[in-house]
Specification:
2 domains; Rossmann fold; 10 helices; three-stranded parallel sheet; 16% strand
Length: 293
């Protein structure tokens, strides 16, 4: 069993981007500028956004945070999006999810200029990805692809099972793993809450990607010997032994499953850190006008 170390890879990615940003500055170019809209004070969202801002500082990006109360109307959020769409200094921006229930996430995502959609959620970017055209790929799937590539894991001809069908992770991950590219060329099965014999399907996977948001759902009974297991889950679970009062758990019961695998991602320290690497890479591409010119 070998750990797929997201912390190590994320550090490498940030170092590579930092060098490129320094080269851009040396040639008189402007710093890449990433903005974020945060609505409300969701604890996990606050943590994610703070981590993104810290990462921007580390690599020489400019960052802007737009804060709105959780009582902000959908129209107010749309107005802030339009400001960022029209700001020539902002290369890319994200609207941190989840949003309050009275705001339509689909309407918000569709309002973002696709050329600044560094989260890769706009239907145009999703459609371009499906057709194999240049696009911003959703940050978490992007990070997983980077992980597979940097660890030189051969995926061609493998059976990949994706558990979870969200538009942010499960669906794009399934599309990317079957594409005619490396990583890719897998035979892909996508599973969800209505899948019968879920454990049996998962046991057939050479590569198992768990993205269902249920802590420690995937036990040893779901994993065949020698499988590669990618755990996308990150859930706060009450833990009185921790000073914080909670522990972070993935979708995979790590201690039970890990000995059976050839490669596995830890939680924390796995996919989550690679997600930020994907977002920063997309922002650099946006600043260079590499996707939309």
């Amino acid at each position: 069993m070998q750990l797929l170390d997201g912390k190590l890879l994320s550090t490498q990615i940030k170092a590579e981007i930092k060098i490129e940003v320094e080269q851009i500055a040396a040639q008189g170019g402007k710093k890449p500028h990433l903005a974020a809209i945060l609505v409300g004070n969701n604890g996990a969202s606050e943590t994610y956004v703070a981590s993104k801002i810290r990462s921007c500082e580390e690599i020489g990006f400019k960052s802007t945070l737009v804060r709105l109360n959780d009582t902000a109307s959908e129209a107010e959020v749309l107005a802030e999006i339009e400001k960022l769409n029209l700001d020539p200094d902002v290369d890319g921006f994200i609207v941190q999810l989840p949003l309050p229930n009275h705001i339509s996430e689909n309407r918000i995502m569709e309002a973002v200029n696709p050329a600044k959609d560094v989260d890769g959620f706009h239907p145009i970017n999703v459609g371009r990805m499906c057709k194999g055209l240049p696009a911003y790929i959703s940050a978490t799937p992007f990070g997983i692809l980077e992980m597979l590539e940097r660890y030189k894991i051969q995926t061609a001809g493998k059976h990949c099972v994706v558990v979870g069908r969200s538009q942010i992770v499960g669906l794009p991950m399934a599309i990317l793993m079957q594409r005619n590219a490396a990583p890719g060329n897998c035979t892909v099965t996508i599973c969800h809450s209505r899948t019968p014999n879920l454990a049996e399907v998962c046991r057939s996977a050479d590569i198992l990607i768990a993205a269902l948001g249920r802590p420690e759902f995937i036990t040893v009974n779901y994993v065949k010997e020698g499988a590669i297991v990618i755990d996308v889950g990150l859930t706060r679970v009450t833990d009185d032994t921790k000073k914080s009062g909670f522990a972070l758990k993935g979708d995979v019961k790590f201690d039970e499953v890990a000995p059976r695998t050839s490669y596995i991602t830890p939680v924390p320290g796995g996919v989550g850190l690679m997600t930020i690497g994907g977002l920063l890479t997309n922002t650099l591409l946006a600043s260079k006008k590499a996707i939309y010119g």
